[in-house]
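Hello,

Following up on my earlier ticket. Below are the two sequence lines again, exactly as submitted.
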Amino acid sequence: MILSVAENITLEQTRQRVFLALFVALAVVLNTLEFLLPNPVPWFRIGLANILGITALFCYGVRALWLVNLCRIILGSLLVGRLFGPGFLLSLGGGILSAAMMSCGFSLGRKRIGPIGVSVLGALGHVSGQLLVAWLVVVRHPGIWLLLPFFLLFAMISGIVNGLAAHFLLNSLAGHAAFRGLRERLDILTGQQPDLHQQQSGN
Amino acid sequence: MRERMKLFSWLRYATPLDRKLLLAVAILVAVSFALPLRREDGAQVIATVQDRVVFKAPLNIDRTVDLQGPLGTTVLQIAAGKVRILSSPCRNKTCVHMGEVHQDGDVLACLPNKLVVHVESKTLAGKTGHDFVSR
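Thanks for your patience. The regenerated structure is below:
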């Protein structure tokens, strides 16, 4: 099929919309899956859904990250039946601060910050935002900040895990023709070690 | 050594900036753990039963008091700058087993008897703390 330049732009936009919709859908699924998992400590969550947020950030930029994460929080809360409840406020507070930290990190460290760095920033933002909302709205006792060290430690670990997952997801996506330019951006990041991920044969 | 290599092998997927960031975050976490350990000693004991303050006393004067809760009498002891619950009418005696506390922000609680004991650094005189203490 022969496409004109204008049609190419339309095609690119459509592709982006379709993939963002897929990312949101996957993030909601991961969100729900994590909600269903038995959890020994109620407030500690891995935040698997953020993998898709990071992927959107590296594929399409800051606006895509906000879109994916906010949609995921609203749809995810709706699905597990706690939309506009106190748990939703905690998620939203964490989500907004997390997205803010990730956008700042991504914009400031442009072409030098990788998925792992962004993910750790996001995880830290998420626990800080959650504790802030919990302190302002739910608990109203400064003793809650004694929890912060444990949250920060857990956030660092889960941030690294999510960052690694996002790294591998991005590298496998970059082999696909629909994500043109992603391969180059990832190679700039890891330019110092070119033989880490074997170049997948582009189609 | 090979175990260490395996433990940190994922670091090769991180960019140099990522690694610096991770180091900074690790330091932040360590500092956040260290900070609450250096809490100052408390100066005042506040006991509440069902959210009503029933007892307030400085931590530096030894005394034993009986506090009435819905279940009965809980005996609170302040001795040598530390506070503890000597006896309680509750079944589990968790409050007795919590032992002695003395730092700012410490809490002793007996949930069955609705009793919560806080240790705070503020004195009865005001929020500024002691000018001096004499006995």
